[in-house]
Amino acid sequence: MTLSRTPGPALPADARPPSGYTAHDLERWMPEPPKSQARTPFQRDRARVLHSSALRRLGAKTQVLGAGADDFVRTRLTHSLEVAQVGRDIGAELGCDPDVVDTACLSHDLGHPPFGHNGEKVLDRLAEDFGGFEGNAQTLRLLTRLEPKVVGEDRPYGLNLTRASVDAAVKYPWARGEGPDPTSPKFGAYADDHDVYRWARQGAVEGRKCFEAQVMDLADDIAYSVHDIEDAITGRTLDLERLRDPMERAAALYVVQDWYMPGEPIDALDEALSRLEAEPYWMDTFTGTMRSAAALKDMASQLIGRFTRSAIGATRTAHGPDPLSRYAGDVVVPAQTHLEIAVLKGLAAAYVMSSASQQPVYEAQEEIIRDLYSRLWNTGTQYLSPLFAELWHGAADDDARRRVIVDQIASYTDVTARRLHEVLFDRALTHLTAADTPLPGLGSEL
Q: What kind of fold does domain 23-200 have according to CATH?
């Protein structure tokens, strides 16, 4: 869709704001003509994300274990679908529009590059001199610029979602170095995306996530904590029975403290783990049989229910029974629940992400991304997709062109990054070009 940005109603004539929302929340950055189908603007937002190429690519991007490492393990796509289901249920219980929450949950990982958080760290170091790299800032960039849906005369507008949906996808509502902790690597917008960021945040409380973004963030934490443990158990990298050994337990809880809860004493983390272990659905041993697999699935389901009920109940206690949306309230997560979620996330970190066996994998991934960045920067548009080649030619300076290179690499799946690296750096293949060797992500789409 190509549009001219001319004066006109930002709100389709047939659109009526759902309860708790205003015409301001339904505005799109680029005004669009009214649609004939009887769908709400928020339903359209969800559909645009669901049908996006960025969401499809998450199917071959690492969640915790490498994408394709096992038929069972989750990818960024399956994780995002699960987050959306958890978030939609929480949002419906608390009264915000479920499609806004669903859209934010489906979008929350779109900006993650190949190789998960490891890839994110490498790209951040490579982009340090021109604004850094952050997966959530990249998500905003995809939604509002890179994902091809609406193109104006002056610039691309990405999926051109409503203000409420864009704001709901902003997990870190501040620019780089301007958050509660200026040293934190987390931020929500690059400098050249501040115009759309300011538009999305009109009327927002500075530094505060809207209610729907808080629901998305909680759903992400819940799904992440429970499902990563499930993947680690089925992948046989975590045996919960080993936590009965005092030394093993202490070492694991130290990783929990180091990664997620540096201000909490080990005793408090141990108590949180003990509360979970006391539940009748907690399983120590996984054998892979039908009965064992069913018990593990039940444990995952029960844990998700435990955490969601706790947060919904605490939020209702704090705010009463009225529907909550936008800036009408905050999600409340009890301290005990927060600790229990952190313990599960930390156990996954201890037995998967910080495992010594993963270090050679991380080093190889870093080499791939660094090599690709160097080669793409030094070869101009030769290995860029047509979309990114167009952005390269339209860039104002070298920093903007470097950002295009980072955008291209961030769009790669794990498979594409490895395959392109083989084409460009394997001596047996050096005579080939991207045109000679068809690669996912090097076509007309992102």
A: Hypothetical protein af1432 (1.10.3210)
